[in-house]
Structures are given as structure tokens and as C-alpha cells.
Amino acid sequence: MSRTDPVLRIERLHKTFGATEVLRGIDLSVGRGEVLCVIGPSGSGKSTLLRCINFLEEPTSGLVYVDGEPIGYRVDTAGRRVRESFREINRLRERIGIVFQAYNLWPHRTALGNVIEALLVVRRQPRATAEAVGLEMLERVGLADKAHEYPARLSGGQQQRVAIARALAMKPEIMLFDEVTSALDPELVGEVLKVMRGLAADGMTMIVVTHEMAFARDVSSRVVFLHQGKVEEEGPPAAVFGAPRSERFKQFISSHR
Amino acid sequence: MQFDWSIVARYGGSFVDGAVMTLVVSVAATLIGLVIGMLAALARLSPWVFLRGVARAYVEIIRGTPLLVQLFFLYAALPLYGIRLSAVASGIVALSLYTGAFAAEILRAGITAVQRGHVEAARSLGMSYGQAMRRIVMPLMAVQVLPPLTSEFTGVIKWSSLLSVVTVPELTYTAYRAIGETYSAVEPLVVAGLLYWGLNDLVVAVGRGLERRLTRHLA
Fold it and tell me: What is the mean pLDDT of each run of 10 residues along chain A (257 residues)?
């Protein structure tokens, strides 16, 4: 990891829903291979932050850069942001994988079918090529033997691992994880976290919104504590957890023990 | 009360022709109506106000006026503006537009019912709106909309009886003619009724078959 080579840069990001300002000026930068854990109480804007990164939500103002390229907008010569074409937004989204809390596997496709769908449709790969990649990805999350099962026949943990494989199949530069273990039975959390640890060890750049403090402590290279739409505390996990500065963060950690 | 089988025998061939005509106009109207309905449903969900307005006006006008009036309009009023359609053509157009409006609402409900997350997953992988619609939304909503669409299309077979008033030689028209010629109402109406029922059984069977196929893997 190095700060000189940011894959992702977020500048003065604001997001307002109606009268509620959910994100109130976020500045962040994520280096290649870094694992950034975003923690914070519910309603602090963690999910919205992730959704703004791949433009599932349109930021009210501010910009997100991937490899120096602003997402969803172009910056014109006068420095104003101009809305990008849908085609460009789709193209950029291919480079950012996201895994959702609710898995969101498509029930009419098998595990393998889910993983290769975008390879077939977006990348227009021949089925055989896509299936080879798909099986490799399922192997990586330990589910090669479930390739031909439909989601309804899989446990929550298995579905979430398929969802991770589905995002990985596009060979994204960044993976976003939106509270991916929050919907799981406690005994299934471990298998998903194990896959994520593996990814981190392989050098994947990850932004992980999570309530799993142990994961944040052990796996992340940096922790960000969001509170009311702002970065309240930021730093390496040892420093942040070892010597929390803000009162709110202290309260938050003590309630998550 | 007696049932004169000789009338059935004498008009058997005409009834078969009538049933075929009923089936042809109904299938045509169903297919065209599905396309119109899908376009109208997408238009009603579109971010463009103009498209939404057009689609909404279409649905409101068609739903708010009788099919018989629409049919007469196409067959009798349009020629005054220089547009002349044959009886069968105006019948198919009227039926298509009519069922399209109802299908639009069913399909709109179906699209809306597909979980947001399934669409977001598709978009997050780089799929365009059209790709996500075709590959994800349509197959998923098919499960929801098949039962109401099946009902809708049994309706098409029955509403097609109205085409008799513009001289389309379908089942009801055939029955009318037989009644006029034999002065006997029971036999032609019973035969026509049974044939309608049979055709609708076919529609229901097709709907049920599709539904079974589509729900195979869903929990």
C-alpha cells in the first residue's frame, strides 16, 4: 500500500435526501491494496457513501475519482462537474465490485449463472470462457461444488459467497462490501469473513462497511469512523482502537464489544 | 326442451371456421397487446414526463371507454378521416389497444415488484438499463404477472365476440347467423359457448405451463 498511488479519491462528497443531509463533506483516499473499514452507528451514512462510490446514488455535490477519473461526471475546463453519459457510468461501474447486505443473487440463475451473467452480457464473452472464469471464482470462495445450484437451495452464507464471486468475476479494481454479514446467522458469518480475509491477503483494494469490530481490527489497514455524515476519526486500526480520541467513538466501541 | 343435433351437424364446419377466426384475432391481439403493454408500462415508469403523460393518457382513455365504442370508432369513424381498415384489421387493432392498456398496468405492477436489489446488482456490474431489464427484471417479473395476464387474455377471447357487430366472421357472428337461419337459439349458443370455453381452457393451460416452467427454481 502506498498513499502516493490512490485508486480511489473522494472529494467533498455531499449527499442529501430531501431535507436530510446524509453525507456532509467526506474526503477520503484509498491506496491500491488497502483495506479500508468504515464503521459507525446506523444512519451515519456508511451505506450511502458506498452507494455514491459506484453511482447507485448520485452525489449531491463532490466527486469520486477512480484512478484519477471522476465517476459519473466529467470536469469541464472551468472546473465544473458535468454529468457523464450512462454508457460511461456503466463502464466505470464494471471496475468497482459491490456486495450487498441482502446478497441480491438473481433467483432465476444458478450460482454459476449469477457469476457469469455480466461476463456474458456486459463483456460479451463466449459462454465457455465465462464459465471457466466463473468456476474459478466459485472455487475461490469455496463453492465450486455448488455451481449448478439455484440460490434458493443455498444457505445465506453460501449465497453471500456467490455474490462475492459474482463481483470478483468482473476483475474489479476495488471491492465494496456493504454490511455483508449483517443479514447472516451468527454461525455463517465466519465463512464469509474468511473469504474476505483471503481477498485482503491477495492484495485486493477493499472498502468494507461493517459492524464486525474484530474484522476491522485484524484485517483493515485503516479504519474510518463515520458520524452524522462526517469522518469523525481515521487511522490505522491499532491507533484508532487503542487510543480513541472522540467521545462518540469511545462510546461506539464500548457498545460493540 | 329438445336439442336439435342436426343444427350442430349442419353448422359444424362454420363453427370450426368461427373458432379459428376467434383464435386468430385473439392470439394476434394478445401478442400485439403484450408489446404495447410493455412499452406503455416502461413509458409510465420513465423519468421523462412527456412519455409518462402519453402512456397515462392512453391507459386512461382505453380503460375509460367501452371496447364497443372504440371498435365502432375504428371501423365506422376512421374512414371519414380517410383511414379505411377491414373488419378483421379494425377488430385486431381495437382488441390489441384494449388489452394493451390493461396489460400495461399489470406489467407496471410486475416491474415495480421486482426487488430493487436485484436491479442494483445488475447495474453495479455494468449492465445497462436495457440489459438489466431483459436479463433480470423481465424473467423475474414474469412469475408475478403470469396469473393476472392469463386472466387478461381469457378476457381477450371473450371480448373478441364484440367483433361480430362489425361482421368479423368469428364464433358469435357464426352463432347469430345460425340463429337467424334456423330460428333456433339454443343449439348455436350452446355450441358457441362450449367452443369459447374450450379456447379459454387452452389459454389457461398455456399460462399454467409457463408458470410451472418459470417457478421451477424459485423458493
Answer: 71 90 90 92 88 89 86 79 81 90 94 96 95 95 94 93 95 93 88 91 93 88 91 89 86 80
- Cell reading at A189: 458469518
- Picking from A56, A107, A110, the nearest residue to B218 by CB comes out as A107
| B8 exposure class (CB count in 10 Å sphere: 0-12, 13-18, 19+) | middle
CB-CB under 8 Å, A94 with B126:
yes
pTM of the shown model: 0.85
Q: What one-character DSSP code corresponds to residue B79?
A: G
Whole-angstrom distance, CA of residue B200 vs CA of residue B60: 27
Domains and CATH numbers, chain B: 5-214 (1.10.3720.10)
Hey, what's the torsion of the CAs at A52, A159, A138, B120, to 10 degrees? -30
**Dihedral sign for Cα atoms in the order B193, B194, B198, B204:** positive
Measured between beta carbons, the chain B residues lying within 8 angstroms of A96 are 124
Q: Which residues of A touch B117 (CB under 8 A)?
A: 100, 102, 104
Across the interface, whether the CB atoms of B121 and A163 are under 8 A apart is answered yes
Residue of A90, A95, A109, A154 to mutate, interface with B, max B Cβ within 10 Å: A90
**Alpha-carbon gap, residue A248 to B82, rounded angstroms:** 77
